[in-house]
Amino acid sequence: MGLIAEHLGVTRDTISRWIDRKPLPAYRVGRLLVEVPGDSRSMNGCAPAERMRMRPGEKRPRDVGPVEWLNEHQVCCLRGLANLKEDRLSAIHDLIAQISDPRLRERLSAEWANAAKEKKFGLVFEDHLPELLPLHGAKPRKGDLVCRRQEALKDVWQIQSLHAGVATCVKPSNEAHPSEPTRAAAKAVQFPVDELLVVREFGEPIFPALVPVDAVANGPLDAPWHTLIEADNYHALQLLDYLYAGQVDCIYIDPPYNTGARDWKYNNDYVDGNDGWRHSKWLSMMQRRLRLAKTLLNPADSVLICTIDEKEVHRLGLLLEQEFPEASVQMVTSVINHSGVARAKQFYRADEYLFFVFIGEASVTPTGQDMLNPPEADEDKKIILWRQLLRSGTNARREDRPRLFYPFWVDPVRKRIHSVGDYIPLGISPDSVQPPEPGLVACWPIRSDDSEGCWQISAETARKGLAEGTVKLGAYTSTRGRWSISYLRNAEKERIARGEIEVAGRDENGALILKPSATVERVKNPVTVWNQRSHNAGAGGSNVLRALLPGRKFPFPKSLYAVEDALRFFVANKPDALIVDFFAGSGTTAHAVMRLNRQDGGRRRCVLVTNNEVAADEATALAAKGLQPGHPDWEQWGICRHITFPRLKAAITGQTPAGEPIRGDYKFTDEFPMAEGFAANLAYFKLDFLDKERVSLRRAFREILPLLWLKAGAVGPRPELKRDEPEPALFAPEGSNFMVLLDETRMDVLLQALQGRAGLSHVFIVTDADESFKTLAQDVREVADKANPGLAVVQLYRDYLLNFMINQNQDRAAGSANTLGARA
Q1: Contact criterion met (CB below 8 Å) for 679 and 780
Q2: Residue 701, SS3?
Q3: Helix 233-244 vs helix 278-296: angle between axes, to the nearest 10 degrees?
Q4: End-to-end CA distance of the chain
Q5: pTM value?
Q6: pLDDT digits over 605-639, tens only?
Q7: Contact, 514 vs 385, CB < 8 A?
């Protein structure tokens, strides 16, 4: 790359910028403005042109990128780079081939080969401006980035000073705040403080806190609690990375489908069908979240499940292949509406798609259904256990397997196999073989075209099977005058050994009498097309939600049973699985997890994340009333507070928000009245952000307690430190599975408390000294390990907020964990 840059007379960074820039800009050559071919966007809608003459005083077209001085040779190379952007990678090789100096040509070829290895050429999309986070509850202060509440979120200002309720603001510099890359110089302006909204950009450190909002306790007190977090999912994922990095068994997400129907926001603006960049905005949004989600998944055995429809299915597939190169990705088609959803002048859409990303040793756990046929079809279908012994397909002729050409001697009167003969060499006619006893008839492996074939097993194996009862005489075909032979394959023998098939006895000829076990479901591998009545989005989604929340509406909820089936394939054998959904929507995933736990007594735990956005039409109506986001009358209509939490509370308690018993029954796998509810617990938090400078050193312990409870597994009631209660040297609430040593000089108090204490999963020690922590951790293990196997001893820094600092830089999303606390 460096040699190419040197040959063009530019820096290596410039070459990288030329390749990365999307779209490639226009460039000035002498007095000419050159638009590089390959840019899919024309200038202000004009036809692409290689050269556009600039008249004195003429303004540069709005869509044209920064103008740079280039010579004709550099422009020629830029054309090659533009072609490269369109995936015609051969263009750069053709350009290099035009260099007359052979030594230079060879060196450039080698340099480009190395650059191509370093540079990823795959899914290409516009890398949009970083997303901004509005902090509706934060009070503006000097130095804060703000926007005006009634204007675009990305129109960012920085407060220079505050006086008498008025903020003096300037445009921040590009280097410090990259969300506005082309800010023009502007004089200071003044805005009323009440009109300003504090925002945070990527790269600005954020100190999160989980503020308890509500809870539902309807299960055993020592059971793990499901968790609902009201938050922007990007920052919530960063927090979850500290709490559960590498521990999640399954992530199930149902992201916005990007249909153009204003169903999601980018930088606080709804993305609709008129947005020419909606696909790349969606990919930018998804890529950042998938990179964080990857850090949560257990690298040894976990799965990511992502649903989508036809609008983004192909782009999502490429993105998943790009972000999870070490994983296996498979797509399933699922019928969710047999009537179909209208598509003007097109086929009606009856399905959607599920991508399964298999991490490590993850595999599908077979169930009793193939997912293609309805369950009742499987129940009525006769289970074929006995197979034809006559070989078919490849290697099925006598000459292919000559030692498998031998006779079964059949007693036609008693209709039983008398014995098994020996194979005869090629060239010997079966007619020349005499029966061992008079009256016996030979049954040779003769194919339907009367040619000589072969059996599936050897004569010796056949004799053994005859004695075991796993080989028997089949039907007699009078038109052909032949008997057939049946046998049990090794697969069926293994199912007998596992108890899936019961041996009811033997018939009069000694053959086994078999029947499917009444206590073990038939095991079948699911296929990649699902067609289940239970997956209907109307009956299993909208109707279920309507029963739980009468009078409340939510667009396109997932079928509860469809989510349940998808999860079961991967967590059926993991009764303590941790499941995460960071596009939680109406909360279907947690509802499905509760159903799975009820079916097998599992203790699976679900963590849900959703924002509290209101629908586009509702936002318009609220704004017309003079309300703004952050106001209680606005927030009460948000998805988390109006749909997600009320739905889960209703599911757990069996009562609607009005206190009435829920009408109707759950269907399919586990049928019972919805009014029975679930023996489950749910904690509801809102992600808030603390200002490190506003919180005194070591005065945030109360705020981080919910985080420690979650990190320790969210087991049992969440302990609290009352507002007027001073920080103790040791925080060890009765019945909790974790302890916190806040004063390392009181190690004797911790060791004494550990004596005879069982059921602990975590001990947190507050200390800034890493070496001291190692010694303290060893002391803890010597006392507590035996009664608490697997005990985790975790270091917390004295400045508590630093343990949970997130959003430090944009590379954070690339996947590297940034945990300041250590674990010994």
Answers
A1: no
A2: helix
A3: 20
A4: 43
A5: 0.71
A6: 999 999 998 887 888 888 888 888 888 898 999 99
A7: yes
